[in-house]
Amino acid sequence: MSSLQEGFGENKEPNSPAVHCAFMWSQVTRQSETEKSRAVLQMDVFAVPGDRHKGWYLSLMAPNTKGPEFAWLDPSRLYCNSQALADCAKDLLSPFQSDNIDLVAGIDAMGFILGASVATALGKGFLAVRKAGHLCVATQGQNYTDYTGKEKTMEVRLDVLRPGLRVLLVDQWIETGGTMKAAIQLVEKLGATVVGVAAVAIENTEGGRWIKENYKFSHCIPEELQSQIDGKYLDSFKTANN
């Protein structure tokens, strides 16, 4: 995957969006791939670079500023940029171009946004995998432990999934893998087939590795940034928090 730095280099017009990006790291146009991965940029939320390399939108993610009771970053900032959201959905679908997908299912709650965008890009319908107690129709439930260690239950309606239906599961982020594993079990319990799993990031936890080992998957994180994702801290946040 191309570095996030690319597309913001030399020869840009003075009034182009790239020039007006609010760089939170100094721009360096000639670097090794490793150096570039440390220079992740946090862009103006509506800026779009002239050369949109795969994963360019990751620089729109925002760090946690509220403390340890919250997630360590907020990927949803990139959804505010229409081009970023469209490109993210396109990149997540790239590994599945040759696969037959009948339906996209997104996990409550942030998986709804990304999942619906992926479904629209694919031209398929969208199924909401809900937290228990929100659907007013007959449902199938599945217990699980989420990334915070809390015991929860998710559910889906009974009038959609059936044997032979091929489903792509989407969530915003896979940390411990417990939530996605439960969604997989729920889909398969009703006889449908999980074509694959897609998320902005899949951390290399035990659960994340289980998903990667057992199902086709896609994510948006370049190899040179995976260790930072696993460590729950991007180098770019050093400046963002100053």
Give an overview of the whole structure.
- This protein has 242 residues and is α/β, with parallel strands linked by helices.
- The chain contains 7 helices and 11 strands.
- It starts with 32 loop residues before the first helix and ends with a helix.
- It is found in: Cytoplasm.
- Belongs to the purine/pyrimidine phosphoribosyltransferase family.
- Pathway: Purine metabolism; AMP biosynthesis via salvage pathway; AMP from adenine: step 1/1.
- Keywords: Cytoplasm, Glycosyltransferase, Purine salvage, Transferase.
Record keyword descriptors for this entry:
alpha/beta; transferase; disordered N terminus; 19% strand; glycosyltransferase; 242 residues; two-stranded antiparallel sheet
Strand content: 15-25%
Mean pLDDT over the residues: 85
Q: Largest sheet, order of strands side by side? A: 5-6-4-3-7-9-11
What's the shape? Answer: globular
Q: Please trace the helix and strand order, writing H or E for each element.
A: HEEHEHEEEEEHEEHEHH
Helix content: 25-40%
Sheet with the most strands, sense and barrel status: 7 strands, mixed
How far apart, in Å, are the first and last alpha carbons? 29 Å
Strand segment count: 11
Radius of gyration: 19 Å
Structural class: alpha/beta
Tally the helices: what do you get?
7
| Spans of at least 5 consecutive residues with low confidence | 1-41
Topology at a glance:
Blueprint (H helix, E strand, L loop, with lengths): L32 H6 L23 E2 L9 E2 L7 H12 L9 E5 L2 H13 L2 E7 L7 E7 L5 E7 L8 E5 L2 E2 L3 H12 L3 E6 L2 E2 L3 H9 L2 E2 L7 H5 L6 H4 L2
Parallel strand pairs: 3-4, 3-7, 7-9, 8-10, 9-11
Antiparallel strand pairs: 1-2, 4-6, 5-6
